[in-house]
Write a structure and sequence with these properties.
Blueprint (H helix, E strand, L loop, with lengths): L13 H14 L3 H13 L3 H44 L8 H25 L3 H11 L5
Helix pairs in contact: 1-2
Length: about 140
C-alpha cells in the first residue's frame, strides 16, 4: 500500500536546485526522492547523536593536532634555549674597535641564515624529519 503524499510548493536557490538535480541524476532517482531523503535525514531523531559523533571525532582530531603542535613548540623552545646558551658561553663580548667589522660580517651571515631557512622550509629536510631519522637509526649525524 502506498503512503499518502501531501503536495508542498516552495522555492529553492538556483545553485541548490542544480545540486539537487545533479544528485538525482547521479543516483537515478527523482528529485522528490532526494528531497525526501534529505528531510528524513535532517528530521530523524538520531540526527542529534550523529552530529554529536561527528563533532566528537572532529574534536578528537583537533586535540591530537594541538598535542603535536605543543610538542613542536616545546622542541623549538628547547632548541632555541640550547643555541642561546651555547652562543653566550662561546662568544665573548667584542672590543669597540672591531664592532663595525663584526656587524658587517654578522649581516652577511644573517642573510645566509635566512636564505638557508627559507630553502629548508620550502624543500626540507625539516628538523622533525632529521630527529625521526636519528631516533630510528640511533645515531647522531652532523
Amino acid at each position: 500500500m502506498k503512503k499518502p503524499h501531501i503536495k508542498h510548493t516552495f522555492r529553492l536557490e538556483a545553485d541548490l536546485s542544480r545540486k539537487m538535480a545533479e544528485r538525482a541524476s547521479s543516483r537515478r532517482v527523482s528529485k522528490t526522492e532526494v528531497v525526501e531523503a534529505a528531510l528524513s535525514s535532517l528530521l530523524s531523531p538520531d540526527d542529534e547523536q550523529r552530529i554529536e559523533a561527528v563533532l566528537a571525532r572532529r574534536l578528537d582530531r583537533i586535540s591530537r593536532q594541538l598535542d603535536r603542535l605543543e610538542w613542536h613548540i616545546e622542541l623549538s623552545n628547547e632548541a632555541y634555549a640550547l643555541f642561546v646558551r651555547f652562543w653566550l658561553i662561546n662568544n665573548a663580548p667584542l672590543p669597540d674597535s672591531t664592532i663595525k667589522a663584526a656587524q658587517a660580517s654578522g649581516k652577511k651571515r644573517w642573510e645566509a641564515f635566512v636564505a638557508t631557512l627559507a630553502r629548508r622550509m620550502d624543500q626540507g629536510p625539516k628538523l622533525k624529519e632529521e630527529m625521526s631519522q636519528i631516533a630510528e637509526d640511533g645515531d647522531v649525524r652532523v
